[in-house]
Fold:
Amino acid sequence: MPEPAASAPLVSMQGISKSFPGVQALINVDFDLRPGEIHALMGGNGAGKSTLIKILTGVEKSDSGRILLEGSEVVVRSPKHAQALGISTVYQEINLCSNLTVAENILIGRQPTRFGAVDWKRMNREASGILLRVLGLDVDVTRTLGDYSVAIQQMVAIARALEIESAKVLILDEPTSSLSSHETEQLFEVMRRLRGRHVGIIFITHFIDQVYRVSDRVTIIRNGRLVGTFDTDSLPRMELVEKMIGRTITEFDEVSKAKASTGEQIGAQPVVTAKELGLSGELYPFDLTLYPGEVLGLAGLVGSGRTEAASLLYGLESPDSGSMEVGGKPVGKFSPFASIARGLVLTPEDRKAAGVVEHLSVRENIILALQVGQGWFRYLRRPQQTEIAERYVEILGIATPSLETPVKNLSGGNQQKVILARWLAMNPRVLILDEPTRGIDIGTKAEIQKLVLSLAEEGKACVFISSELEEVMRCSHRIAVMSERRKVAEYGGDVEEKVLMHTIAGGE
Amino acid sequence: MAGTDARHLWRKATESKLFFPLTLLGFILLIDSILVPGFFSFQARGWNLYGSLIDILRNASTIMLLAIGMTLVIATGGVDLSVGAVMAIAASVAALLMNPYVLAKELPPHLMRLINDPNFTFQPLWVVIGVTLLVALLCGLWNGMLVAYVRIQPMVATLILMIAGRGIAQLITNGVRIQIFYEPYAYIGQGWLVLPFSLYLVAITYALTWLLTRRTAIGMFIESVGINARASYFSGISEKRIKMLAYVICALCAGLAGLVASANVKTSDANNIGLTYELDAILAVVIGGTVLGAGGRFSLLGSLLGAIVMQAVTTSMYALGVPAFALQAIKGMAVIVVILLYSEQARSFLRNLGTKTEAGP
Structure:
């Protein structure tokens, strides 16, 4: 492995801050990339990784801080400008034309011409030369790109970025998430090859394994702050996980107290029992038992199968193996509607896309599910709707100018509360909360955590999913750990943080 | 204080969905009143009222019917291009039911014997209307199935029936234009009861649709599906059934519009009945303030106003002597103006205009 030149960094981002309305996305973050290194960038959802990349590629403007490219300060005006500066990005979704040939994709816009017409022979020759030289890849460039696997397509994108845009900096944004293990290995091979050619590679991934397999250094961001940059070899796995999801501020003592006062359920009938529930390609079969009055934490990294487990339980997808019982009755039909009828509800991870109905008012959003239960024709009368909405706005402390305000005008935390209100109005038996506190300010976070515990105290069962380990530990009576799309372990609520992290990191 | 109130009122008015359709309508009528003498005059013959305004309303009735159904479809985030073709199908079915002997001549002899009486018909009227609406309902189920269950893009899915529908309408009458002599039927399109009879049909359809959507949860569910289908699904709303319902209502409205249109010309003209009406209906809905493509909040009353605006433009053009072939081009211009007027920039400009003028000393 060639030793990365310790001299001048290729890219140096200094003191980068960026805030969006209501959120401080990045706070004084430093980041540097050396030529000829693979630099992993890690952090949970909403940690600020993508904001940092967007600033480097000119999609967003930073509020403060500066970017040095090979020692001289630059202002990246747009993604196009970034390319001209030699900063190229290959995204998870490939933005090439799958109906054109490989050669066309590589050389589009600068096809060699002869007497004014495209010189196809030369174009194909040049394209295959580029692929071979840059990536060591031997493919038939006259076939359409869509004929090839996602991995090859991604490599074509890389070849184009490097050869045509002569990129010095290559950003790979979660390139492996749709690749098989063999294809991933192929991609790593290419990455190592490029390292030899002194390209600086920023590698964004959620997979810890891959960080250790391929990267030289790793930078960790959490809650918009830089945790640090480390040599990968000298950073133990455990420490990496700890830095990503570890302990933060301790403003939540009250929550812990609330948890202490809820007794463990002994001898009660479970409200949900899942046996060998699984869906091939999504999630390996898992067992789960949920008792009334308890909060079951679901810990694990992004992509570990937490959300998939939630969507199976809620019936967004039908499992192809195993069985499930809710309240002692076997579940036959898996659908959100059927789940709601059973008293099992879910607040989705993606609040915006799957939670709130933006243009409907706060009132309508709150009574929506209740009305679904009533059916099309037994319409709740307006005073009734207002009364219900008013009650939950007060109980949950939803800050809104009025009940008729479109919910899109509310802050993220209040939108989350509206979704909670929608379900609480139905008086459910089981609540699955997928990242209920993501992107929410600290105060509201604590409120929601307290609410979850008080719901358990009322006898409801909750499944609490979060990327923040500390939060899961604080709220849960039991904790199940997901990793690599399996449920790998289950602990009591008083499990040590270290043990949990060890399990999440996949052991050593 | 008065200034603040006026400003508040102006703000409320400009934010209202009906503000733009009403303004447009007022604008067009203003032009008419200047350019066309006697535009606002009414004549009474017996009990019945006649006049330019009434003509506009009467001619707008088919578009109004279409616009009512189209509003719901557009609110779910879709569009229905087949309404014109469904009108033609409805016209053909109705005409055939009233005068099946026309076709009997084309049938093989053993079938012809069944209908060998030239005066044989499927009258009375309610049978004709009932069967026709049933056929329209089938058209709606077909569209709804393609969009909601097969998950074809609404524009493509309804394009199928738009193209095939006229062929089907021709097939039903075997390519013959069937004359309609049944007077009770003609009354649907030509009758007058103080006001043109078709306007009562519009009023009843509007009232029923309003009750169905606003006095039940269906309206809210339609809006919810249109705004965010995924979130609606997560909340347990059956997006498929809601979409199905919207397309069925839309097709029923189109069927009714087909009855009115064919009764008006007393023939089943499969080639011309409802031709390009789908575009007028879509435009009417857009003018009425329901957003095409994005779906969501809808206003049935706005769509009715939009339909009247469309017809008022057409009628005024004729009154001004604009030749029929130039009309489409002028409608196109009108669309551009409308779209510009509806942009956020124009809206905020208007709002600020109000604030500035009222804020003065």
The first strand of chain B starts at residue 42 and ends at 45. Chain B touches chain A through 21 residues (CB under 8 Å). The mean pLDDT of chain B is 87.
